[in-house]
């Protein structure tokens, strides 16, 4: 029986997920993964956050680039560029095989959950990896010059446009993954990984009454801050907060989850905030540079959950 549900998206989330996978038995943890970043490109169905997590858990991640697969080749992109095709979203040859597999399976009528489970099995992943929904939810970034599809903002435009808000197309009609729903009553804790709260966590929370259901759980919900010392460890979180007139602080992230979380994990650089938040907090080293760091943060977070429980 699964005891812990980790909500994750992006590289930061995958790092803590790997730590949890090393600390917990495989049948005790499940990962609910953001699919708001998903999109179709060059005819392929691409799920960046699911792929980042599965590559990380299977030790296939490209640690140098921070995305995609290791030992990658780029013949497809080179040939596409020669033909004048779009090359702003880099698809390595090995990575492309996964997207082709997923796309064909979706066209055969299989669900994203089924496909993800098969990919995990084939990559030797024992943990349960669950897309947040089998229904399409697509993140749109609002800017002064108009809305941008998330990958256009994040990859093509390299997060340069100023952000004025976000929309999650389809979230009002989508259903939370039934396999996630089934886990909720028996959980011992929920962990919101140090992922971008606006574009990696909020897409899941905006599906129906998911946020309210998580807040109402008997089990504690804790979030790990993606902001350390006023800076985002990875990605545009701090930039987004500044453009939205939100202080780039761990306290502001905790406030963003107000009413949902029962505890908050602070980095040692933000130890002065301990005891000042609206929820209990704990202080630990949360910058994950090594596998040891990932495991240590996972252990500290689980210990905090146990204390709250």
Shape: globular
* Helicity level: 25-40%
H and E order: EHEEEHHHHEEEHEHEHHEEEHHEEH
Radius of gyration (CA) equals 19 Å
How much of the polypeptide forms β-strand, as a percent range? 15-25%
Q: Assembly state here?
A: single chain
Distance between the termini: 18 Å
Low-pLDDT parts are none
Structural category:
alpha/beta
Number of strands: 14
Q: Report the total helices.
A: 12
In order across it, which strands form the biggest sheet? 5-2-1-9-10-13-14
The average pLDDT score comes to 97
Q: Major beta sheet, specifics?
A: 7 strands, parallel
Name a few traits of the molecule.
309 residues; alpha/beta; seven-stranded parallel sheet; 14 strands
What would a concise description of this structure say?
The chain is of the alpha/beta class.
Question: What is the strand and helix layout of this fold?
Answer:
Elements: E1 4-8, H1 10-23, E2 29-33, E3 39-41, E4 44-46, H2 48-57, H3 75-82, H4 93-107, H5 112-122, E5 128-131, E6 138-143, E7 146-149, H6 150-156, E8 165-169, H7 178-183, E9 189-192, H8 197-205, H9 210-215, E10 221-224, E11 227-228, E12 231-232, H10 237-243, H11 250-256, E13 263-267, E14 281-284, H12 291-308
Parallel strand pairs: 1-2, 1-9, 2-5, 9-10, 10-13, 13-14
Antiparallel strand pairs: 3-4, 6-7, 6-8, 11-12
Helix pairs in contact: 1-2, 1-12, 4-5
């Amino acid at each position: 029986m699964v005891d812990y549900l980790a909500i994750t998206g992006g590289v930061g989330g995958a790092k803590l997920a790997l730590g949890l996978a090393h600390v917990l038995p495989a049948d005790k943890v499940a990962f609910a993964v953001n699919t708001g970043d998903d999109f179709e490109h060059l005819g392929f169905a691409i799920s960046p956050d699911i792929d980042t997590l599965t590559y990380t858990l299977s030790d296939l991640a490209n640690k140098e680039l921070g995305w995609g697969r290791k030992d990658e080749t780029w013949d497809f992109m080179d040939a596409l560029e020669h033909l004048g095709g779009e090359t702003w979203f880099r698809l390595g040859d090995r990575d492309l095989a996964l997207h082709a597999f997923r796309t064909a399976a979706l066209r055969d009528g299989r669900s994203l959950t089924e496909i993800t489970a098969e990919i995990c099995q084939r990559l030797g992943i024992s943990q349960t990896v669950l897309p947040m929904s089998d229904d399409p939810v697509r993140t749109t970034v609002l800017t002064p010059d108009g809305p941008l599809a998330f990958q256009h903002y994040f990859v093509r435009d390299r997060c340069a446009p100023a952000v004025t808000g976000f929309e999650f197309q389809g979230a009002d009609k989508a259903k939370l993954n039934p396999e996630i729903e089934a886990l909720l009553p028996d959980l011992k804790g929920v962990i919101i990984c140090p992922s971008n709260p606006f574009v990696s966590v909020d897409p899941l929370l905006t599906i129906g009454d998911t946020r309210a259901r998580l807040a109402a759980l008997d089990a504690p919900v804790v979030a790990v801050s993606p902001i350390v010392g006023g800076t985002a460890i990875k990605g545009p979180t701090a930039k987004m907060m500044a453009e939205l007139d939100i202080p780039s602080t761990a306290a502001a992230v905790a406030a963003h989850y107000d009413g949902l979380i029962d505890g908050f994990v602070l980095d040692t650089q933000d130890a002065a905030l301990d005891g000042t938040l609206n929820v209990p907090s704990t202080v630990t080293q949360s910058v994950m540079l090594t596998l040891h760091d990932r495991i240590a943060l996972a252990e500290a977070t689980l210990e905090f959950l146990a204390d709250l429980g």
